[in-house]
Structure formats: structure tokens, C-alpha cells
Specification:
Elements: E1 4-9, H1 18-26, E2 37-40, E3 50-52, E4 56-58, E5 61-64, H2 73-77, E6 83-85, E7 91-93, H3 103-107, E8 113-115, E9 141-143, H4 148-151, H5 158-161, E10 168-172, H6 179-184, E11 189-190, E12 202-205
Parallel strand pairs: 1-12
Antiparallel strand pairs: 1-10, 2-5, 3-4, 6-7, 8-9, 11-12
């Protein structure tokens, strides 16, 4: 059995947003759409700090995208079964089946989905990123796929490959010899909103 997962070292994440930009470029995402975001504890705006000025300010970055859950809340509510979990644990969405009802957006506790309100628009007049990047359609919901197209050809997710702080680790969490398991051994980590019962497969390393 294979279950792909990702670990993110919060101490090494510098909030540079390279992961978000790499994801956007490699997936040829339309204007205004982001699968990957880098949030902070302090507030809703970019790079907000937590604490009080002047002696208790701190800033922790929390990169966030689809958590590729063991029990995806999004799949449970989709009325047309457009959301499927692959045998390798990657949660995928079939845009041809999606009817744009947005129930999956409401159900996802991680706010990890985006919606194409209109025909996709791009900053340039040609397709960029991976040659096999997913197609983007109007009135459809989209999400991070762990770069499934890259995984299927033996590569790694774009966000992990380009991280300058080497804050991301990737692999089969069911394989004791995988890179991600070797990295997680002996470290403290947390998962987001585990009380929701979704079983997220993104590990945030805290120490």
C-alpha cells in the first residue's frame, strides 16, 4: 500500500511564497487562483505577526493547501462523485463531473479549494508550466493535486522541489524507508484540525 504525504518544517519555512508561486506556474493556474497559500498566525493579511508590540512579536508561517485526507470531507458531500481518492492517497477532483455546486468548498475545513467564477484568464497568451498541467474550466472547483501529473511520471510536487529553505519532505508514509519517514523520526509534528476526523496527510514539524 502507498499513501503519499508531505512534511513541512515550520522552523525552516521563511515565508518566501516560492511554494505558492511554483505551484501556480507549474499548474498554469488562471489569474486570481492559488492552490497553495502561506498563512501566518497573526492575522488574515500577508505576513502578519502574532503577539504584542514591542517585545512579544513573533511570526510563524503555515503553508496550506489540500491536506489529502484519509477521510476527505469534500468527497462525502459531493453529489456527483466528482472527488475520488486514488490508491496512493492523493485526493483528485474530476472537473468534467464537477457541477460547481461548491458543497466541497463548504465542507473542507482547510479552505483549500478555489472556484473559477468565469472563463479562465492568464497574464500571457500561451500556456506555461508543466506540459501536462490540468485544464482549467469556468464554474468548476479546483484544488491541489500533490502534482499528481508529476508524481505519475516519477517526479515530486513542484512546491517541494523549489523550496529554497528545504522545508518540505515528500514520500510514501506507509514505507518505513521513505524520505518522509526518515525525516519525521524523532521530531515533533502536528496536523491541522485533527479533531475534524479527516486524517490529513500533511505533517507540520514543530521541533
Amino acid at each position: 500500500m502507498t499513501t503519499y504525504a508531505m512534511a513541512i518544517d515550520l522552523a525552516h519555512c521563511v515565508g518566501c511564497h516560492t511554494c505558492a508561486v511554483a505551484c501556480k506556474l507549474n499548474n498554469n493556474l488562471p489569474d486570481g487562483l492559488w492552490y497553495n497559500r502561506v498563512l501566518t498566525e497573526g492575522g488574515a493579511y500577508l505576513d502578519a505577526a502574532a503577539g504584542t508590540y514591542p517585545n512579544d512579536l513573533r511570526r510563524t508561517f503555515w503553508p496550506r493547501s489540500c491536506q489529502h485526507c484519509e477521510v476527505p470531507a469534500c468527497a462525502a458531500v459531493c453529489p456527483v462523485e466528482a472527488i475520488v481518492k486514488r490508491e496512493d492517497g492523493i485526493v483528485m477532483q474530476d472537473n468534467e463531473l464537477c457541477i460547481g455546486c461548491k458543497l466541497c468548498i463548504t465542507a473542507c475545513p482547510y479552505e483549500a479549494r478555489v472556484f473559477n467564477e468565469t472563463d479562465p484568464a492568464y497574464p500571457v497568451d500561451f500556456k506555461f508550466g508543466d506540459w501536462d498541467a490540468p485544464e482549467h474550466l469556468a464554474l468548476k472547483v479546483e484544488k491541489c493535486t500533490f502534482c499528481a501529473n508529476r508524481i505519475d511520471r516519477g517526479d515530486v510536487p513542484a512546491c517541494m522541489e523549489l523550496c529554497p529553505g528545504r522545508a518540505r519532505y515528500w514520500g510514501d508514509i506507509d514505507d518505513p524507508a521513505s524520505e518522509i519517514n526518515a525525516y519525521l523520526e524523532g521530531r515533533d509534528y502536528t496536523k491541522l484540525l485533527e479533531d475534524k476526523g479527516t486524517g490529513p496527510n500533511v505533517y507540520y514539524v514543530t521541533k
